[in-house]
Design brief:
Elements lengths: L1 E5 L3 H12 L4 E5 L2 H10 L4 E5 L7 H10 L5 E6 L4 H9 L4 E4 L4 H13 L8 E4 L2 E4 L4 E4 L2 E2 L4 H12 L7 H8 L10 H13 L6 E3 L3 E3 L2
Parallel strand pairs: 1-2, 1-3, 3-4, 4-5
Antiparallel strand pairs: 6-7, 7-8, 8-9, 10-11
Helix pairs in contact: 2-3, 6-8
């Protein structure tokens, strides 16, 4: 799942990104509204965590353009104002949810997860293929009823393969959905992560390599 955090306070932006990254989200950051719009134009984010009071381009205008655009991003708007009027204004311009500062990270995380489940196509709470099962609310992964412990990127790759419902997912698509913008597109990190994931899921191998195309779980 891909998330964009738009917040002009660098330390807060970094803290939110780090926290969501620990929950297997691929997180990019932008420190102003102009940069946010540039990133939204080239990446289809599942959720945008958007501060309302931004430099360069105001958060309200960023939200309007996201909603009017062709993407499927859900918007969680952040603001220092707790006034009902401010919340109503934010929702009226297209935000899907609203959170006032200061906030507990646990609440922000829960709201991001909830918005991700409302993405299009909808994210199913339980993903299953054969004897592999993932409960996304708890990140519990089992194969044949036996729990499998996965690292964040291994889990993210498995979720993307399961969401594809048997269709082929290219290495480029996995890199875009499970890693952030700082990852070298020529890296072999996808291949290495898949190797580790296959080892942990055990035999027989449930992930098929389609030469020249990508990977799938049939």
């Amino acid at each position: 799942m891909r998330v964009l955090v738009v917040e002009d306070e660098p330390r807060l932006a970094a803290a939110i990104a780090e926290g969501l990254g620990r929950e297997a989200f691929a997180v990019d950051t932008a420190l102003d509204g102009g940069r946010a719009l540039e990133k939204v134009a080239v990446t289809d984010y599942d959720v945008v965590v958007l501060d309302r009071d931004l430099p360069v381009v105001h958060g309200d205008e960023v939200c309007r353009r996201i909603v009017a655009g062709p993407g499927r991003s859900r918007v969680l708007m952040l603001t220092a104002s707790s006034a009902v009027r401010a919340r109503v204004e934010g929702l009226a311009i297209g935000a899907d949810d609203y959170l006032t500062k200061p906030f507990a990270f646990a609440e922000l995380s829960a709201r991001v997860h909830a918005l991700a489940r409302r993405a299009v196509p909808a994210v199913r709470p339980v993903l299953e293929r054969g004897d592999v099962r993932v409960v996304q609310s708890t990140r519990e992964v089992t194969r044949g009823g036996v729990e499998v412990a996965l690292a964040n990127k291994e889990y993210a790759v498995l979720v993307e393969l399961l969401r594809a419902d048997g269709a082929i997912v290219s290495a480029e698509e996995l890199l875009e959905r499970a890693w952030d913008e700082h990852t070298d597109p020529f890296t072999n990190t996808v291949r290495v992560t898949l190797m580790k994931l296959r080892r942990k899921l055990g035999d027989p191998d449930v992930i098929r390599t389609v030469p020249g195309a990508g990977y799938r779980i049939p």
